[in-house]
Write a structure and sequence with these properties.
Elements (H helix, E strand, L loop, with lengths): L3 E11 L39 H13 L3 E2 L2 E2 L2 E4 L9 E4 L6 E7 L14 E11 L3 E5 L4 E5 L6 E7 L6 H17 L12 E10 L8 E6 L2 H20 L7 E6 L4 E7 L9 E2 L6 E2 L8 H6 L5 H12 L3 H9 L1 H12 L10 H23 L10 H12 L5 H14 L3 H7 L8 H14 L1 H8 L3 H17 L6 H12 L1
Parallel strand pairs: 12-13
Antiparallel strand pairs: 1-10, 1-11, 2-6, 3-16, 4-5, 4-15, 6-7, 7-10, 8-9, 11-12, 13-14
The chain binds zinc ion.
Length: 496
Protein backbone atom coordinates (compact mmCIF):
# COMPACT_ATOMS: atom_id res chain seq x y z
CA UNK A 1 0.00 0.00 0.00
CA UNK A 2 1.14 3.53 -0.65
CA UNK A 3 1.30 5.81 2.39
CA UNK A 4 1.47 9.55 2.04
CA UNK A 5 3.81 11.27 4.54
CA UNK A 6 2.90 14.57 6.18
CA UNK A 7 5.70 16.53 7.82
CA UNK A 8 5.80 19.66 9.94
CA UNK A 9 8.87 21.15 11.58
CA UNK A 10 9.66 22.93 14.81
CA UNK A 11 12.97 24.72 14.64
CA UNK A 12 14.81 26.40 17.49
CA UNK A 13 17.60 28.89 16.85
CA UNK A 14 19.81 30.69 19.36
CA UNK A 15 19.82 34.39 18.58
CA UNK A 16 23.02 36.34 18.06
CA UNK A 17 22.59 39.10 20.64
CA UNK A 18 24.98 40.97 22.90
CA UNK A 19 23.27 39.88 26.12
CA UNK A 20 20.96 37.12 27.33
CA UNK A 21 17.18 37.24 27.06
CA UNK A 22 16.23 38.54 30.51
CA UNK A 23 19.48 39.71 32.14
CA UNK A 24 22.64 41.58 31.14
CA UNK A 25 24.94 38.53 31.09
CA UNK A 26 27.01 38.15 27.93
CA UNK A 27 25.52 35.87 25.28
CA UNK A 28 28.72 34.15 24.17
CA UNK A 29 28.34 30.72 22.55
CA UNK A 30 32.14 30.43 22.32
CA UNK A 31 32.80 30.74 26.06
CA UNK A 32 34.75 27.62 26.95
CA UNK A 33 34.79 27.95 30.75
CA UNK A 34 31.59 26.78 32.44
CA UNK A 35 29.47 29.16 34.53
CA UNK A 36 31.26 32.35 33.50
CA UNK A 37 28.30 34.25 32.07
CA UNK A 38 25.87 33.92 34.96
CA UNK A 39 24.11 36.25 37.40
CA UNK A 40 21.36 36.04 40.04
CA UNK A 41 18.67 36.54 37.35
CA UNK A 42 19.64 33.66 35.05
CA UNK A 43 20.43 31.48 38.08
CA UNK A 44 16.91 32.19 39.41
CA UNK A 45 17.87 33.59 42.78
CA UNK A 46 14.85 34.62 44.85
CA UNK A 47 13.73 38.20 44.46
CA UNK A 48 15.32 38.77 41.04
CA UNK A 49 13.25 40.05 38.12
CA UNK A 50 13.61 39.55 34.36
CA UNK A 51 13.85 42.41 31.83
CA UNK A 52 13.09 41.52 28.20
CA UNK A 53 15.88 41.96 25.62
CA UNK A 54 14.86 44.53 22.99
CA UNK A 55 17.43 43.31 20.46
CA UNK A 56 16.07 39.76 20.61
CA UNK A 57 12.49 40.92 20.10
CA UNK A 58 13.57 43.06 17.17
CA UNK A 59 15.37 40.13 15.55
CA UNK A 60 12.34 37.84 15.72
CA UNK A 61 10.11 40.55 14.23
CA UNK A 62 12.68 41.05 11.48
CA UNK A 63 12.48 37.33 10.64
CA UNK A 64 8.68 37.69 10.58
CA UNK A 65 8.99 40.56 8.11
CA UNK A 66 11.26 38.44 5.89
CA UNK A 67 8.69 35.61 5.93
CA UNK A 68 5.89 38.00 4.94
CA UNK A 69 4.21 37.17 8.24
CA UNK A 70 1.72 38.96 10.42
CA UNK A 71 3.67 40.80 13.11
CA UNK A 72 2.08 41.24 16.51
CA UNK A 73 1.38 44.76 17.68
CA UNK A 74 0.87 43.31 21.15
CA UNK A 75 2.58 40.24 22.52
CA UNK A 76 3.13 38.54 25.85
CA UNK A 77 5.41 36.12 27.66
CA UNK A 78 4.10 33.00 29.42
CA UNK A 79 5.50 30.51 31.86
CA UNK A 80 5.93 26.95 30.69
CA UNK A 81 6.22 24.83 33.82
CA UNK A 82 8.30 21.68 34.03
CA UNK A 83 11.21 20.33 36.04
CA UNK A 84 14.65 19.59 34.68
CA UNK A 85 18.09 20.06 36.28
CA UNK A 86 19.10 22.46 33.50
CA UNK A 87 16.15 24.75 34.24
CA UNK A 88 16.94 26.69 37.43
CA UNK A 89 13.58 28.46 37.76
CA UNK A 90 11.51 25.32 37.38
CA UNK A 91 9.81 26.98 34.43
CA UNK A 92 10.85 28.45 31.11
CA UNK A 93 9.76 31.92 30.06
CA UNK A 94 8.26 31.37 26.63
CA UNK A 95 5.24 32.53 24.63
CA UNK A 96 2.06 30.61 24.05
CA UNK A 97 -1.15 32.35 22.96
CA UNK A 98 0.43 35.65 21.88
CA UNK A 99 3.59 34.96 19.85
CA UNK A 100 5.54 37.74 18.14
CA UNK A 101 4.92 36.37 14.64
CA UNK A 102 2.01 34.54 13.02
CA UNK A 103 1.14 33.08 9.60
CA UNK A 104 4.13 33.58 7.33
CA UNK A 105 5.39 31.71 4.28
CA UNK A 106 8.81 30.32 3.45
CA UNK A 107 9.34 29.63 -0.22
CA UNK A 108 11.76 26.78 -0.97
CA UNK A 109 14.24 27.45 -3.79
CA UNK A 110 12.89 26.29 -7.15
CA UNK A 111 14.56 22.94 -7.68
CA UNK A 112 17.09 22.66 -10.53
CA UNK A 113 14.97 19.88 -12.03
CA UNK A 114 12.18 22.41 -12.58
CA UNK A 115 14.50 24.95 -14.12
CA UNK A 116 12.70 27.88 -15.53
CA UNK A 117 9.89 27.78 -13.02
CA UNK A 118 9.84 31.07 -11.19
CA UNK A 119 9.27 29.77 -7.69
CA UNK A 120 9.53 26.78 -5.41
CA UNK A 121 7.07 25.22 -2.99
CA UNK A 122 5.59 27.50 -0.37
CA UNK A 123 5.59 26.19 3.21
CA UNK A 124 3.28 28.00 5.61
CA UNK A 125 4.67 29.20 8.92
CA UNK A 126 2.30 28.85 11.86
CA UNK A 127 4.18 31.05 14.30
CA UNK A 128 7.53 32.26 15.57
CA UNK A 129 7.94 32.96 19.24
CA UNK A 130 10.68 33.98 21.61
CA UNK A 131 11.84 32.13 24.70
CA UNK A 132 14.97 31.44 26.75
CA UNK A 133 17.35 28.54 26.32
CA UNK A 134 18.06 26.06 29.11
CA UNK A 135 21.49 25.39 30.65
CA UNK A 136 23.67 22.57 29.38
CA UNK A 137 24.09 19.28 31.21
CA UNK A 138 27.61 17.96 30.88
CA UNK A 139 27.78 14.22 31.38
CA UNK A 140 31.01 12.71 32.64
CA UNK A 141 30.74 8.98 31.93
CA UNK A 142 34.07 8.14 33.57
CA UNK A 143 33.18 9.58 36.95
CA UNK A 144 29.49 8.82 36.49
CA UNK A 145 28.52 12.41 37.24
CA UNK A 146 26.55 15.11 35.49
CA UNK A 147 27.46 18.77 35.93
CA UNK A 148 25.47 21.78 34.77
CA UNK A 149 26.94 24.69 32.83
CA UNK A 150 24.65 27.73 33.10
CA UNK A 151 26.37 29.85 30.43
CA UNK A 152 23.55 28.94 28.04
CA UNK A 153 20.75 29.41 30.59
CA UNK A 154 18.65 32.36 29.50
CA UNK A 155 20.18 32.78 26.01
CA UNK A 156 17.52 34.14 23.60
CA UNK A 157 15.97 31.32 21.63
CA UNK A 158 13.39 31.57 18.88
CA UNK A 159 11.09 28.76 17.94
CA UNK A 160 9.54 28.57 14.50
CA UNK A 161 6.66 26.18 13.85
CA UNK A 162 5.49 25.24 10.36
CA UNK A 163 2.18 23.90 9.11
CA UNK A 164 2.39 20.22 8.09
CA UNK A 165 3.00 21.23 4.46
CA UNK A 166 5.98 19.05 3.59
CA UNK A 167 5.58 15.64 2.02
CA UNK A 168 9.12 14.24 1.87
CA UNK A 169 12.37 14.14 3.83
CA UNK A 170 14.01 16.08 1.00
CA UNK A 171 11.55 18.95 1.29
CA UNK A 172 11.97 19.10 5.07
CA UNK A 173 15.73 19.22 4.71
CA UNK A 174 15.46 21.96 2.07
CA UNK A 175 13.24 23.95 4.41
CA UNK A 176 15.74 23.72 7.27
CA UNK A 177 18.64 24.68 5.00
CA UNK A 178 16.76 27.62 3.55
CA UNK A 179 15.77 28.87 7.01
CA UNK A 180 19.41 28.67 8.07
CA UNK A 181 20.39 30.84 5.09
CA UNK A 182 17.65 33.38 5.87
CA UNK A 183 18.72 33.56 9.55
CA UNK A 184 22.31 34.15 8.43
CA UNK A 185 21.42 36.73 5.76
CA UNK A 186 19.42 38.63 8.37
CA UNK A 187 22.22 38.37 10.96
CA UNK A 188 19.75 36.85 13.43
CA UNK A 189 21.61 33.67 14.23
CA UNK A 190 24.69 31.74 13.07
CA UNK A 191 22.34 28.75 13.12
CA UNK A 192 25.14 26.20 13.13
CA UNK A 193 23.47 22.82 13.65
CA UNK A 194 26.69 21.07 14.70
CA UNK A 195 27.11 23.62 17.50
CA UNK A 196 23.49 23.24 18.63
CA UNK A 197 22.67 26.82 17.61
CA UNK A 198 19.89 25.46 15.43
CA UNK A 199 17.84 22.40 16.44
CA UNK A 200 15.27 20.71 14.27
CA UNK A 201 12.35 18.63 15.48
CA UNK A 202 10.10 16.92 12.99
CA UNK A 203 6.46 15.91 13.32
CA UNK A 204 5.80 13.02 11.00
CA UNK A 205 2.70 11.03 10.18
CA UNK A 206 1.71 8.76 7.31
CA UNK A 207 -1.72 8.01 5.94
CA UNK A 208 -3.25 5.95 3.15
CA UNK A 209 -6.16 8.35 2.67
CA UNK A 210 -6.78 12.06 2.99
CA UNK A 211 -7.13 11.92 6.80
CA UNK A 212 -4.00 12.77 8.81
CA UNK A 213 -2.32 9.86 10.56
CA UNK A 214 -1.03 9.76 14.15
CA UNK A 215 1.81 12.20 14.61
CA UNK A 216 5.23 11.21 15.99
CA UNK A 217 7.71 13.85 17.08
CA UNK A 218 11.41 13.21 16.45
CA UNK A 219 14.03 15.11 18.48
CA UNK A 220 17.86 15.11 18.78
CA UNK A 221 18.49 15.72 15.10
CA UNK A 222 21.91 17.35 14.92
CA UNK A 223 22.64 17.84 11.22
CA UNK A 224 20.85 18.50 7.95
CA UNK A 225 21.81 15.06 6.74
CA UNK A 226 20.15 13.54 9.78
CA UNK A 227 16.98 15.60 9.20
CA UNK A 228 16.62 13.61 5.98
CA UNK A 229 17.64 10.29 7.49
CA UNK A 230 15.44 10.55 10.59
CA UNK A 231 12.35 11.46 8.55
CA UNK A 232 12.97 8.72 5.99
CA UNK A 233 13.38 6.21 8.81
CA UNK A 234 10.11 7.30 10.45
CA UNK A 235 8.16 7.17 7.18
CA UNK A 236 9.34 3.59 6.66
CA UNK A 237 8.75 2.58 10.28
CA UNK A 238 5.23 3.98 10.42
CA UNK A 239 4.27 2.63 6.99
CA UNK A 240 5.58 -0.80 8.04
CA UNK A 241 3.48 -0.76 11.21
CA UNK A 242 0.30 0.18 9.34
CA UNK A 243 0.96 -2.34 6.60
CA UNK A 244 1.03 -5.13 9.18
CA UNK A 245 -2.29 -3.92 10.57
CA UNK A 246 -0.65 -2.24 13.55
CA UNK A 247 -1.08 1.24 14.98
CA UNK A 248 1.26 4.18 15.27
CA UNK A 249 1.61 5.39 18.85
CA UNK A 250 1.59 9.12 19.48
CA UNK A 251 4.96 9.70 21.11
CA UNK A 252 8.26 11.55 21.16
CA UNK A 253 11.16 9.66 19.65
CA UNK A 254 14.87 10.50 19.54
CA UNK A 255 17.21 10.09 16.57
CA UNK A 256 20.05 7.73 17.42
CA UNK A 257 22.89 8.65 15.11
CA UNK A 258 25.07 5.59 15.73
CA UNK A 259 22.29 3.10 15.15
CA UNK A 260 20.67 5.26 12.47
CA UNK A 261 17.19 4.88 13.83
CA UNK A 262 14.62 6.64 15.98
CA UNK A 263 14.02 5.35 19.50
CA UNK A 264 10.87 5.79 21.60
CA UNK A 265 11.42 8.26 24.48
CA UNK A 266 8.09 9.14 26.05
CA UNK A 267 4.46 9.57 25.21
CA UNK A 268 3.87 13.02 23.80
CA UNK A 269 2.89 15.65 26.33
CA UNK A 270 0.10 18.09 25.53
CA UNK A 271 0.26 21.85 25.92
CA UNK A 272 -1.98 21.70 29.01
CA UNK A 273 0.56 19.48 30.76
CA UNK A 274 2.83 22.51 30.98
CA UNK A 275 0.30 24.65 32.88
CA UNK A 276 1.07 27.72 30.79
CA UNK A 277 0.08 31.02 32.41
CA UNK A 278 0.96 34.67 31.73
CA UNK A 279 4.38 35.62 33.09
CA UNK A 280 3.55 37.97 35.97
CA UNK A 281 7.05 39.48 36.16
CA UNK A 282 7.02 40.90 32.62
CA UNK A 283 4.58 43.49 31.29
CA UNK A 284 2.83 42.79 27.97
CA UNK A 285 4.74 44.07 24.93
CA UNK A 286 3.07 46.89 22.97
CA UNK A 287 4.72 47.91 19.71
CA UNK A 288 2.47 50.52 18.17
CA UNK A 289 4.11 53.91 17.79
CA UNK A 290 7.67 52.52 18.14
CA UNK A 291 9.34 52.94 14.72
CA UNK A 292 11.91 50.12 15.05
CA UNK A 293 9.09 47.61 15.60
CA UNK A 294 6.81 48.93 12.87
CA UNK A 295 6.12 46.25 10.22
CA UNK A 296 6.50 48.77 7.36
CA UNK A 297 9.90 49.93 8.56
CA UNK A 298 11.07 46.37 9.30
CA UNK A 299 10.06 45.32 5.79
CA UNK A 300 11.66 48.33 4.14
CA UNK A 301 14.98 47.67 5.87
CA UNK A 302 15.28 43.98 4.93
CA UNK A 303 18.49 43.06 3.15
CA UNK A 304 18.49 40.99 -0.05
CA UNK A 305 17.24 37.50 0.83
CA UNK A 306 18.51 34.20 -0.62
CA UNK A 307 15.70 33.75 -3.16
CA UNK A 308 16.03 37.35 -4.34
CA UNK A 309 19.74 36.87 -4.74
CA UNK A 310 19.22 33.64 -6.70
CA UNK A 311 16.89 35.45 -9.09
CA UNK A 312 19.31 38.35 -9.50
CA UNK A 313 22.36 36.14 -10.08
CA UNK A 314 20.46 34.14 -12.71
CA UNK A 315 19.28 37.27 -14.48
CA UNK A 316 22.32 39.55 -14.16
CA UNK A 317 25.10 37.02 -14.54
CA UNK A 318 23.42 33.98 -16.10
CA UNK A 319 24.81 31.72 -13.36
CA UNK A 320 23.49 28.18 -13.75
CA UNK A 321 21.75 26.44 -10.86
CA UNK A 322 24.63 24.14 -10.04
CA UNK A 323 27.12 26.96 -9.44
CA UNK A 324 24.52 29.34 -8.09
CA UNK A 325 24.33 27.70 -4.66
CA UNK A 326 28.07 28.19 -4.11
CA UNK A 327 27.46 31.94 -4.33
CA UNK A 328 24.24 31.83 -2.31
CA UNK A 329 25.87 29.93 0.57
CA UNK A 330 29.06 31.99 0.70
CA UNK A 331 28.31 35.68 1.06
CA UNK A 332 31.96 36.78 1.04
CA UNK A 333 32.70 34.76 -2.11
CA UNK A 334 29.74 36.27 -3.95
CA UNK A 335 30.81 39.77 -2.93
CA UNK A 336 34.29 39.05 -4.25
CA UNK A 337 32.74 37.91 -7.53
CA UNK A 338 30.55 40.99 -7.86
CA UNK A 339 33.44 43.34 -7.16
CA UNK A 340 35.65 41.50 -9.65
CA UNK A 341 33.14 41.70 -12.49
CA UNK A 342 32.21 45.30 -11.70
CA UNK A 343 35.63 46.03 -13.24
CA UNK A 344 34.57 44.35 -16.45
CA UNK A 345 32.79 47.43 -17.84
CA UNK A 346 36.09 49.27 -17.72
CA UNK A 347 37.50 47.02 -20.42
CA UNK A 348 34.33 46.92 -22.49
CA UNK A 349 36.25 48.34 -25.47
CA UNK A 350 38.71 45.44 -25.45
CA UNK A 351 36.61 42.51 -24.37
CA UNK A 352 32.90 41.84 -23.90
CA UNK A 353 31.89 42.12 -20.20
CA UNK A 354 29.78 38.97 -20.65
CA UNK A 355 32.94 36.98 -21.39
CA UNK A 356 34.63 38.21 -18.20
CA UNK A 357 31.54 37.37 -16.13
CA UNK A 358 31.40 33.87 -17.59
CA UNK A 359 35.09 33.25 -16.93
CA UNK A 360 34.84 34.68 -13.41
CA UNK A 361 31.93 32.39 -12.52
CA UNK A 362 33.92 29.39 -13.69
CA UNK A 363 37.26 30.30 -12.14
CA UNK A 364 35.70 31.31 -8.79
CA UNK A 365 33.49 28.25 -8.38
CA UNK A 366 36.19 25.79 -9.43
CA UNK A 367 39.81 27.00 -9.28
CA UNK A 368 39.58 29.70 -6.63
CA UNK A 369 37.21 27.63 -4.42
CA UNK A 370 39.55 24.66 -4.79
CA UNK A 371 42.61 26.69 -3.81
CA UNK A 372 40.82 28.19 -0.79
CA UNK A 373 39.83 24.72 0.34
CA UNK A 374 43.36 23.40 -0.17
CA UNK A 375 44.87 26.27 1.82
CA UNK A 376 42.02 26.23 4.39
CA UNK A 377 41.68 29.95 3.83
CA UNK A 378 38.47 31.97 4.02
CA UNK A 379 38.05 34.35 1.10
CA UNK A 380 38.11 37.31 3.50
CA UNK A 381 41.73 36.53 4.35
CA UNK A 382 43.29 36.24 0.90
CA UNK A 383 45.81 38.78 -0.37
CA UNK A 384 44.33 38.90 -3.87
CA UNK A 385 42.02 41.83 -4.53
CA UNK A 386 38.86 41.45 -6.64
CA UNK A 387 40.37 44.05 -9.01
CA UNK A 388 43.41 41.88 -9.63
CA UNK A 389 41.23 38.82 -10.10
CA UNK A 390 39.14 40.74 -12.64
CA UNK A 391 42.30 41.67 -14.50
CA UNK A 392 43.38 38.02 -14.58
CA UNK A 393 40.04 37.17 -16.19
CA UNK A 394 40.49 39.94 -18.74
CA UNK A 395 43.95 38.63 -19.68
CA UNK A 396 42.46 35.14 -20.08
CA UNK A 397 39.58 36.46 -22.18
CA UNK A 398 42.00 38.28 -24.48
CA UNK A 399 44.17 35.18 -24.85
CA UNK A 400 47.18 36.99 -23.37
CA UNK A 401 47.64 33.96 -21.15
CA UNK A 402 46.50 30.37 -21.58
CA UNK A 403 43.89 28.84 -19.30
CA UNK A 404 46.63 26.64 -17.82
CA UNK A 405 48.67 29.80 -17.23
CA UNK A 406 45.71 31.53 -15.57
CA UNK A 407 45.45 28.70 -13.04
CA UNK A 408 49.17 28.92 -12.22
CA UNK A 409 49.07 32.70 -11.95
CA UNK A 410 46.04 32.54 -9.66
CA UNK A 411 47.91 30.25 -7.30
CA UNK A 412 50.86 32.67 -7.21
CA UNK A 413 48.52 35.64 -6.73
CA UNK A 414 47.02 34.02 -3.65
CA UNK A 415 50.47 33.38 -2.23
CA UNK A 416 52.02 36.78 -2.87
CA UNK A 417 49.19 39.24 -3.46
CA UNK A 418 50.93 40.45 -6.64
CA UNK A 419 48.94 41.58 -9.64
CA UNK A 420 48.57 39.17 -12.52
CA UNK A 421 50.35 41.19 -15.23
CA UNK A 422 53.44 41.44 -13.03
CA UNK A 423 53.53 37.66 -12.53
CA UNK A 424 52.76 36.94 -16.17
CA UNK A 425 55.58 39.13 -17.41
CA UNK A 426 58.17 38.02 -14.89
CA UNK A 427 57.46 34.30 -15.10
CA UNK A 428 56.89 34.18 -18.83
CA UNK A 429 53.21 33.35 -18.91
CA UNK A 430 52.45 35.82 -21.66
CA UNK A 431 51.51 34.07 -24.87
CA UNK A 432 52.92 35.71 -27.91
CA UNK A 433 51.22 35.54 -31.22
CA UNK A 434 54.60 36.02 -32.83
CA UNK A 435 55.26 32.37 -33.51
CA UNK A 436 58.03 33.25 -35.96
CA UNK A 437 60.03 35.03 -33.27
CA UNK A 438 59.68 32.11 -30.89
CA UNK A 439 60.71 29.60 -33.51
CA UNK A 440 63.79 31.64 -34.26
CA UNK A 441 64.74 31.66 -30.58
CA UNK A 442 64.29 27.91 -30.32
CA UNK A 443 66.43 27.33 -33.42
CA UNK A 444 69.17 29.56 -32.00
CA UNK A 445 69.13 27.76 -28.67
CA UNK A 446 69.42 24.38 -30.39
CA UNK A 447 72.35 25.63 -32.48
CA UNK A 448 74.15 27.06 -29.47
CA UNK A 449 73.49 23.99 -27.29
CA UNK A 450 73.97 21.16 -29.73
CA UNK A 451 75.23 18.78 -27.03
CA UNK A 452 72.09 19.20 -24.94
CA UNK A 453 69.97 18.76 -28.06
CA UNK A 454 71.80 15.53 -28.91
CA UNK A 455 71.43 14.30 -25.32
CA UNK A 456 67.71 14.87 -25.46
CA UNK A 457 67.42 12.96 -28.73
CA UNK A 458 69.20 10.06 -26.99
CA UNK A 459 66.52 10.07 -24.33
CA UNK A 460 67.81 12.43 -21.62
CA UNK A 461 64.60 14.20 -20.54
CA UNK A 462 66.41 16.69 -18.30
CA UNK A 463 68.13 18.21 -21.33
CA UNK A 464 64.79 19.40 -22.66
CA UNK A 465 64.16 21.30 -19.43
CA UNK A 466 67.55 22.91 -19.80
CA UNK A 467 66.85 23.96 -23.39
CA UNK A 468 63.45 25.42 -22.47
CA UNK A 469 65.11 27.37 -19.66
CA UNK A 470 67.67 28.81 -22.11
CA UNK A 471 64.91 29.79 -24.53
CA UNK A 472 62.92 31.48 -21.74
CA UNK A 473 65.99 33.54 -20.88
CA UNK A 474 66.53 34.49 -24.48
CA UNK A 475 62.85 35.47 -24.91
CA UNK A 476 62.96 37.56 -21.79
CA UNK A 477 66.10 39.42 -22.86
CA UNK A 478 64.43 40.20 -26.18
CA UNK A 479 61.25 41.22 -24.33
CA UNK A 480 59.16 38.66 -26.16
CA UNK A 481 56.32 37.14 -24.14
CA UNK A 482 56.62 33.37 -23.99
CA UNK A 483 55.60 30.57 -21.73
CA UNK A 484 57.46 27.33 -21.08
CA UNK A 485 54.70 25.13 -22.48
CA UNK A 486 54.68 26.85 -25.88
CA UNK A 487 58.46 26.77 -26.10
CA UNK A 488 58.50 23.09 -25.15
CA UNK A 489 56.14 22.36 -28.02
CA UNK A 490 58.52 24.12 -30.46
CA UNK A 491 61.45 22.05 -29.20
CA UNK A 492 59.50 18.81 -29.49
CA UNK A 493 58.62 19.64 -33.07
CA UNK A 494 62.10 20.71 -34.10
CA UNK A 495 63.92 17.88 -32.30
CA UNK A 496 61.46 15.27 -33.55
ZN1 LIG B 1 22.41 36.44 33.89
Amino acid sequence: MNFKPTIGLEIHAELKTVTKMFCSCKNDPDEKHPNMNVCPVCLAHPGTLPVANREAIHKVLKLGAALGAKLADESRFDRKNYFYPDLPKGYQISQYPHPLVKTGVLELPASPAKRGEPSGKKVRITRVHLEEDAARSVHDDKNKTTLVDFNRAGVPLMELVTEPDMTSAKEAREFAEELQLILRYLGISDADMEKGQMRVEANISVSADSKLGTKVEVKNINSFRNVGRAIDFEIKRQSGLLEKGGKVRQETRGWNDTEEKTVGQRSKEEAHDYRYFPEPDLPPLKFSGIPEFSPEILRARLPELPNQKRARFRKEYGVDDEKLEIFIRDKALSEFFEQAVSEAEKWAGEVEPKKIIELSVNYITSDLSGLLKEKKLPIAEIKTTPENFGELMKMTALGEISSRGAKDILRLMLETGEDPSEIAERDGFLQTSDAGALEEIVKNVIAQNSKAAEDYKKGKEASLQFLVGQAMREAKSRKIGANPQTLKEFFLRLLG
